[in-house]
Amino acid sequence: MWERSGVQDTELYRHLLGLTAPWVVSRVELNVSGQQVDVWVEHESGARWRCPGCTRELAVYDHSAERVWRHLDSCQFATQLHARAPRVECPEHGIRQVSLPWAEERSRFTILFERFAIDVLLETDISGAMRVLRISWDEAMHILEKAVARGKQAKRSKPPTLLGVDETSAARGRKYITVVCDLERGTVEHLSEHRRAESLASYYTTLTDEEITAIKAVAMDMHEPYVKATKEHVPDWHRKIVFDRFHVMQQLTIAVDRVRKAEHRDLLANGDRSLVGSKYVWLYSEENLPPRYADRFEQLRAMELKTARAWAIKETLRELWRYKRLSIAKKLWKQWDAWARRSKLAPIVRAAATIRNHIGGIFSYFDNRVTNAMTEGLNGKIQRIKRAAHGYRNTDNFMTAIYFHCGGLDLYPRPRTHAVP
Ligand SMILES: [Zn+2]
């Protein structure tokens, strides 16, 4: 039996801890100077328990030494739960400690504390959680790791059929991470180091033949290693790879800027300052041009500049994705390609060649209608995670944080009752 010291406190804490029979609170100690509340939990005698290995119902064999779990604060007082876990002797599994309803195995925190910690971590970052929860960096990172491991384990088994692949820069230096996204759910499905063919292949090899065949489309930029991995692992890859409009147009925007730089240099050599300060004017598409640039842009376009011609070529290709029918889009592209080739603007000629070499993957958009815009959005979120965390000390931690914030996982531990009712 236990000593009842202040029945009201023990009842209050039994409710706060969500304890049910046979568990009861035996003692509550308040330490005002230490800003701490200590709660001792015991079980009624005669209770029976399930073996964690086989759920066989057994009597108590003995108790392990007292352990302490951090619980949610009581009015800013750090609250510690103390208990000795019962052990059972199972004929099949030997002497085992039973599962405790308030904590996961080997955790130093109660489940309710961990659930709260996960909410805090979702709203802030590691250092924010350290301040709010008064826990160490290692403890915060450990809660995050466990949440991700739990979420991955609980994940439904069906992998996505519409994939987006992109690279993102890792926590430090020039390292990269390959990000595979579920374009339907808008979540990060898989992460691997580097941006090599093996990086993407490491995702494909986790899938069964059926799951690979079920892939309908893989949206990506024209990054050869990703193309290579997809060719090697995905049957019918030529119908499934989709080169994203955003990246195709990005290539042309870069080409226009190169034309401008070269032309500006030539003009300046002859004392012509027409293109001074015009860089940003050319980076916009026509409908997005800010009003403050409108007059300048009209003047420049009227001047028969090479840059203006390059810009017009770029803008014309943007129409491609507006067509509903592939046959019409193909016709437009052929005309465009001939125009670009004849332009004598070297950066445009090169960009057109790149597009020609990838045209199958650009046209497969018309079958799938997927874009990588979602992946781009997730990538923005990933970069915010990176900045907020001041570096996760290593790439593994950074990847864990990405899964935590972007994985769409069920991160929370669930309270359980393992005593026999
Ligand atoms: Zn057993």
Mean pLDDT: 90
The helix-and-strand class reads: alpha+beta
The total count of helices amounts to: 18
Q: What profile does the largest beta sheet have?
A: 5 strands, mixed
Query: How far apart, in Å, are the first and last alpha carbons?
Result: 20 Å
Number of strands: 14
The Cα radius of gyration reads: 31 Å
Q: Poorly predicted ranges (pLDDT <50, ≥5 residues)?
A: 1-5, 417-421
Taken as a percent bin, the fraction of beta residues is 15-25%
Shape: elongated
Spatial order of strands in the largest sheet: 12-11-10-13-14
- The helix fraction, in percent, is 40-55%
Question: What ligand molecules are bound, each kind once?
Answer: zinc ion
How would you describe this structure to a colleague?
The strands form 4 sheets. This protein has a 5-stranded mixed sheet with strand order 12-11-10-13-14, with helices on both faces. A 4-stranded mixed sheet has the order 1-2-7-6. The radius of gyration is 31 Å and the shape is elongated. The chain contains 18 helices and 14 strands. 46% of the residues lie in helices and 19% in strands. Strand 6 and strand 7 form a beta hairpin. With 421 residues, the chain is of the alpha+beta class. The structure holds zinc ion. Zinc ion binds next to loops.
